[in-house]
Amino acid sequence: MTLAEARSLTFAHRRKVFLVSTPTIRGLSRIEREFEASDQRRYHVPCPHCGHVQWLKFERLRWDKGQPDTAEYHCEGCDAAIAEHHKTAMLAAGEWRATAESEDPGTVGYHLSALYSPVGWLGWTRIARAHEAARGSDEALRAFRNTVLGETWMETGEAPDWQRLADRREAWAPGTVPEKGLFLTAGADVQKDRIEVDVWAWGRGLESWLVDHIVIEGGPGDPDCWQTLTDLLVRTWAHERGQHLTIARFAIDSGFETSAVYAWARQVGFAQVAPVKGLEGFNRASPVTGPTYVDATIGGKRLRRGARLWSVATSTFKAETYRFLRQDRPTPEEITAGASFPPGTVHLPSWADAEWLKQLTAEQLVTVKSRRGFTKLEWQKLRERNEALDCRVYARAAAWIAGADRWSEARWADLEDQLGVAKANETDTGQGAAPRAQGRTAPRRRTMRSSYMG
Ligand SMILES: [Zn+2]
Known about the structure:
29% of the residues lie in helices and 26% in strands.
């Protein structure tokens, strides 16, 4: 955007910069910020009953619950119901009107939602139906607000209640990987006196399971501590189908003891280990960037471009984690009937204790107003200790670095094949049975090498 604006300066006399977009998240949306700085024009239409001129708001679209076909718009002036068939005449009689004064004279902004769709396109009943369908899912509601209403989604960064998470814990063999977990990543948080490591398994749709929680006492000044960490790189965790998995990607926070982390990562190799650095703020093109080549000091010697470093937009992954944690789940009956968990579901084991759960929910996203009057989102700590959340964010970044956000269907299917996991859509046809049967008759121990992840 800045580049486009700079280029238009060449034609200073008649320059025009045109920005158009669907907004995303409140406080982060660029187009919303630009719109708020404009004269905020909205299309005003007259009520067919009382003539009151108004712009259309979703709140005034009403229908009987569960019956979107009864949707009608209610006039702001007389509250009478306006049927869809009035729309054509209303649109024809409408006009754009500014609803604010722009910060820079000459900046005009236009907002139009799907409520204005011409008859025969996206009608009010279809909008009502879409809203009913989205209920219960943050993800779907957010898409509805963004694409149908053209409004930002207010990210509820409220920390999930740790007790509620405790109630939802699931029992599976400690230290093992449930069937749908297809690869492992680890996130390590380096503290003064210890290193904490959480191992997460990831499946399709980034469904995840906490597999292990390891606290290495001693801290970065202690060589034994680093040796224990090195041992973790070759350690394996048993998968429910009999294979053994190593950690595909190991992300370690380099913020606290940068040179020790670089030195260790260089020693064990960057194929498996990714030193990461957390960055604030949401407005980033990608949640993870890198690697960048950074100088490292090893044994008192400075090595130019001796280490690799990935930058992680921690805010983005924290918001995602909390969104995933808040998601509705199928009931036990629905699960028995074959229902699957929604993408992103976070599975916590019965051994996850109160302290760990409190750490995972230790932060809150709050909206703060900046000096220029724009709102900004910021994560604030509710509790001093938040290692579980940090480790989760780094492990999530490791999954991103492994490429899981961009894998094709074939790649996931390949992972399932390697582990002998029956594919959800093939269980009925029997096609998925072959590798599974093989796994049973020949329970030979095979370790999935991390190099597979590239
Ligand atoms: Zn009216």
